[in-house]
Design a protein that fits this description.
five-stranded antiparallel sheet; two-stranded antiparallel sheet; 45% helix
Length: 300
Amino acid sequence: MADITIPKPLNFSFKECLWFLDRNYDDCLYKVTDTSVIKPLLIDGQKVIFELRENAEGMAVELLYNESGGNHADTITAYIHDWLDLERDLSGFYQLLAQHNAFGYMPDEFAGLRLIGIPDVFEAICWCIIGQQINLTFAYKLKRSMVEKYGESIELDGEVHHFFPKPEVLAEATMEDLKNLQFSRQKADYVIHVAKLISTGEFSKQELQALPDREAQLKRLISVRGIGEWTANYVLMKTLKDMNCITIGDTGLNSALDAHGLVKNKKDKAEVRAFFDDFEGWKSYLVIYLWRSLASPDVK
């Protein structure tokens, strides 16, 4: 019996979301099975592990571990809604896709895929810094090495479940420590710098949310050492669920634009932005669906 049941919204596919969470990469912060995802979560410093799967009523949440024994149903439900972007009605986006010659196949082929978020701003920024100028396989390797060294973990039924390191812990790391984990000197510097800002309260998700508009949010993010335009857009898209983010310069996005025969000069930021103008209010979702298209046999 489920500990929590969450109704599924329209235009939602748990299978598509599981595929996107997996993609054959070694993510150490959750475990994907054929029918579920197992996610460790810190709630007010207390460790919780839940398993999410589909059932006849919608999605079932089973608590596998609850350190405090408290009732975290509301917090876990809110987290899943944010993580899987369950509150959003995708019908307007699908109408735009259907009207576009190159994207008409997407509402059927990728039906129900959601923008999978990273609710923790520190985790999102660190992931961007780790992934700068390296391939995804090596990026996941670096993340795992950092999480295993600095994050907490629990062994449950023979499986080890990891929690992302707290900023105050990484703030005490040295550059040599991270270099020993195969971080470049620059990446190590950036991660430690951001960890210090967040652990001292000089930067926070709440601060970003309180800013008047996305331009102010982008400016604030880019003012942080180690965060450029790509990272700022990625963080706003994944953490604040800003719907008008374009990860310009992203290798995967460029490959998808090429495969669809779109945008003559991908290095021309103005041209890329102009192409996305037809998807005002859905630019972030178009990025996600273009990434998804790279695994489609129909996209060459």
